[in-house]
Amino acid sequence: MKNISTNKPLDVLKVFSFKGIQMQTFHITWITFFFCFFGWFGIAPLMKIVKDDLGLSKAQIGNIIIASVSATIFARLIIGRLCDTLGPRLTYTWLLAIGSIPVMTIGLANSYETFLLFRLAISVIGASFVITQYHTSAMFAPKIKGTANAVAGGWGNLGGGVTNMLMPVIFAGFVGAGYANHDAWRLAMVIPGVILLIMAFVYYKFTKDTPAGNYVNIKREAVQKGSFMSAASDYRTWILFLAYGACFGIEITFDNVAALYFTENFSCDLKTAGLLAGAFGFMNLFARAIGGIVADKVGNVYGMRGKGWLLAGLLAFEGIGIMLFAQTGSIVFAVIAMLGFAMFLKMANGATYAIVPFVDAKNVGSVAGIVGAGGNLGGVLAGFLFKSESISYAQAFMYIGIVVAVIGGITALIKFDKQESIVVEPVLEVA
User: Fold this and answer.
1) How many CB atoms lie within 10 A of CB 164?
2) Transmembrane stretches, by residue range (predicted)?
């Protein structure tokens, strides 16, 4: 029976409804996360222009790729804890306000060193994912958490694809207005920075920490001081840490290098490369949600153990798909392979966070932060491969595919107690 109380977590996800603080917060949090990608990866599809403007080498671009996801590792660990204490509303508001500054001012960079520092500062915005997943988990009942998290995360991740498509258009708009390339890319980045400031106001004004109200206004159970250690001491948290590095970590790496890869390997122009890279991200419209929905249904039949097996299988197929992508010399087959491994990758993203809220229910923020940090660590490690002068981008993708498949095998080792099984049916409505 669907709960009708206005101050309780919902047990149904009405994706086209804005009624009630639960659905209002759901939509605001994924939309905010969507725009965070414009700030986080807005410069990625313009890297060919930046490379020429600043005279960057392959190794320097590799360092920039690493910087773009590295600070997020530590930020996600901190943000998860802040969600448990301050609440997601204030945490997100401050992150957006602070993160908008380097996004708007990255255009002041005139050398490799200053650009690298700006890219490092911008990477903190990636911690927004943890807040989105935390906030969504707070608004929905256990049987629908996986689905709600996957839809919110997927639609937010869609921003990575739209960014690759739209930022070259914004850049071209400034060029059409008479600005030279070296000025146009700098001005283009002001746009996502302003959007982040606007979303900071929206988040503060129109969301609440929980269906019952904000943390400062409601009575809550005391958060244990050792809550982070409780989450960190569970080996399953660290297997999910690896798993998320193998799916989301590769996603953000691909968001960073896809446009440049298609430009240099297949001689695509900037707009075409952006569209192809955008197609990868656009699959978040449905793929991550499917991963969460399937995980919830599998959990209903086979419990949490079944969710672990599902995630392991998705990672294995993702790895195989990446290896196929690495070996093709045809742009047609490359796009087909890309869409194939993207489907498994994004479903794995959704399946991972269909498990996260149940590892340690008292410390969801800490678990979410650790696992989320694993995603960015995966991106950092993958970035070192693209930095190397001794291997090609194609070889880097081959190595990544192998590692992802191996992590899929490790993920199959996750075990859950019987009492941690999920035996309820998820509900998704479109009304």
Assistant:
1) 28
2) 28-47, 59-79, 91-109, 115-134, 155-179, 185-204, 238-262, 274-296, 332-355, 367-386, 392-414
Q: What does pTM read for this prediction?
A: 0.79
- The backbone torsions φ and ψ at residue 322, rounded to the nearest 5 degrees and listed phi first, read -65, -40
Q: What is the DSSP letter of 223?
A: P
DSSP state of 224: P
- The three-state secondary structure class of 392 is coil
Instruction: Quick: pLDDT tens for 270-314.
Output: 889 888 988 898 888 889 889 988 998 898 888 888 999 999 999
Read off the tokens for 77: 């660990």
Listed as own residue / partner, the contacts of 304-308 with beta carbons closer than 8 Å and 24 or more positions apart are 304/355, 304/358, 304/416, 304/420, 304/421, 304/422, 305/414, 305/415, 305/416, 305/421, 307/146, 307/351, 307/354, 307/355, 307/422, 308/355, 308/411, 308/412, 308/414, 308/415, 308/416
Mean pLDDT, range 412-430, rounded to an integer: 55
Residue 60 pLDDT > 70: yes
Question: For 328-363, where are the alpha helices, taking DSSP H only?
Answer: 331-355
Query: What whole-number distance in Å separates Cα of residue 308 and Cα of residue 146?
Result: 13
- Look-up of token digits 């002041």: 108
* Among the listed residues 392, 90, 113, 406, the one whose alpha carbon sits nearest the alpha carbon of residue 257: 392
Nearest CA among 243, 272, 218, 402 for reference residue 324: 402
Q: What number of residues does the chain have? A: 431
Rounded CA-CA distance 92/75 in Å is: 12
pLDDT digits (tens, 9 = 90+) for 89-137: 999 999 999 999 999 999 999 999 999 999 999 999 999 988 998 999 8
Q: How far is the C-alpha of 155 from the C-alpha of 144, rounded, in Å?
A: 16
End-to-end CA distance of the chain: 17
Residue 110: count of CB within 10 angstroms of its CB:
12
Which run of H or E residues covers position 13? strand 13-14
Tell me what the mean pLDDT of segment 35-54 comes to.
Answer: 94
